[in-house]
Amino acid sequence: MHYPFIHGAELALRKRQEAEGLVPEFRGETYDTGDISYLAVSTCMVLIMVPGLGFLYSGLARRKSALSLIWACYMTAVVSLFTWYFWGYSLAFSKTATNGYIGNLHSFGMKNVLWGDDGATYPELLFAAYQGMFAAVTGAIVAGGIAERGRLFPVCVFTAVWITIVYCPIACWAWSANGWAAKWGVLDYAGGGPVEIGSGVGGFAYAIVLGRRKEQLLLNFRPHNVSLVTLGTALLWFGWLGFNGGSALGANLRAVYAIMNSNITACFGAMSWCLLDYRLERKWSTVAVCSGIISGLVAATPCSGVIPLWASVILGVSAGVVCNFATKIKYLCRVDDSFDTFAEHGVAGIIGLIYNALFGADWVIGLDNATEHRGGWLSHNYRQIYKQICYMLASVGYTLFMTVLIGFIVNYIPGCKLRASEDAELRGMDDDQIGEFAYDYVEVRRDYLSWAPPAQTLQGASPQGGSEAEGEISNKVD
């Protein structure tokens, strides 16, 4: 037996332990240290997306609920990883599954997950860790649906069930060797179905179950801290390069190509969205830039390792324009999708999947020197379009139905009522659910309907308007 990473006394000890059955037989002769290092770094990069989402959501919300959204992103990611460790990975990627819908529990608790297949250049345990970050990020994106009105413990319960019943099956369809979509030849490079459609439609469906925020509490609503929005976007962009680049599963040219495609799409998405918003008020919007970057990165997720670079220019413009107008869907449906999760994730994910059929190139797919596929129309594979559309419709329909169903069921579990009370919504989720605040100088309450001070207080005010009561009122900001 050859041990490329073990030498000297450690090698002798290893052989003795192996002969006595104390340790599993070494099967890593084909491991590539470059691939292992790259995938490990990509795993860490994807994790950065969780606080990025937390800062993004926190900045877009009002101050009285800022910290609760950071908490929700962190905790749903924790719950997702907990679920992934015990049964999630097995349900998505078990190799002994007998159907193309969902796996079995062959790898429950990471059992039978260590070395990987013969000839693999990285251990399967590393692949499981990498894919676990995808599940964590997806769960955190869905958590945006609770904005300013959702209770925190129920969303954790919901996330555990949702990852199991929604995310894992769609991941199995697209990425498992036994998945029906993978066998059919559907192109989904880094998660247009399980990650983007799953999170976008899932967050939208959760908002449907929760209901709208109270209209009278939304007067003068605006993001309370755009600086946090830019910080969150920066962390997301950085993490996304590990998300899309790492999906090549090795330090190869396809990974480099995916990173370049992601950057191009993000840039053109940002410019398109920003120009569309500029036409309305003749002012440049920072939130518009961030929204365009995110929509571009989302659109690149399913196709950054599939389409040529020039097609990413078209993709970025398409994502920026279509997703910008898609933000109006929530008004047509009267759904309080506070952070435009459906427009920026669901719609952009759909666009990326369709672009795989239109611009998928067999030579780009083969840049990892391992994957073979006929590509899309660019490679004269005209049948790819109906495969992509069927997979997209299946992902949207399944996610929407199951998310609403899970939400209604969890809502009736004792102690798991999804929505906070109207009084709690008025005071803010930070005060009601956590008891801690993002800003220690902020007054808890902002009641627009009861701002008028007592008449006797106003009569005692000084000519300069410097009464104590008036000073208290002026500090009541959201």
From TrEMBL:
GO process terms (BP): nitrogen utilization
Q: Carries keyword Transmembrane?
A: yes
Q: How does it sit in the membrane?
A: Multi-pass membrane protein
Where in this chain does the record put each Ammonium transporter AmtB-like domain? 39-439
Which stretches of sequence are listed as region Disordered? Answer: 457-478
SUPFAM superfamilies given for it? Ammonium transporter (SSF111352)
TM spans, by residue?
36-57, 69-87, 125-145, 152-177, 189-211, 223-243, 255-276, 283-301, 347-365, 385-410
What InterPro entries does the entry give?
Ammonium/urea_transptr, Ammonium_transpt, Ammonium_transpt_CS, NH4_transpt_AmtB-like_dom
**What compartments host this protein?**
Cell membrane; Membrane
Q: What is its main location?
A: membrane
A GO CC annotation given for this chain: plasma membrane
Is Flavoprotein included in the keywords of this UniProt record? Answer: no
Q: Which UniProt keywords apply?
A: Ammonia transport, Membrane, Transmembrane, Transmembrane helix, Transport
Family to which the UniProt record says this protein belongs: Belongs to the ammonia transporter channel (TC 1.A.11.2) family.
Q: Which NCBIfam families match?
A: amt
The entry's protein name is Ammonium transporter
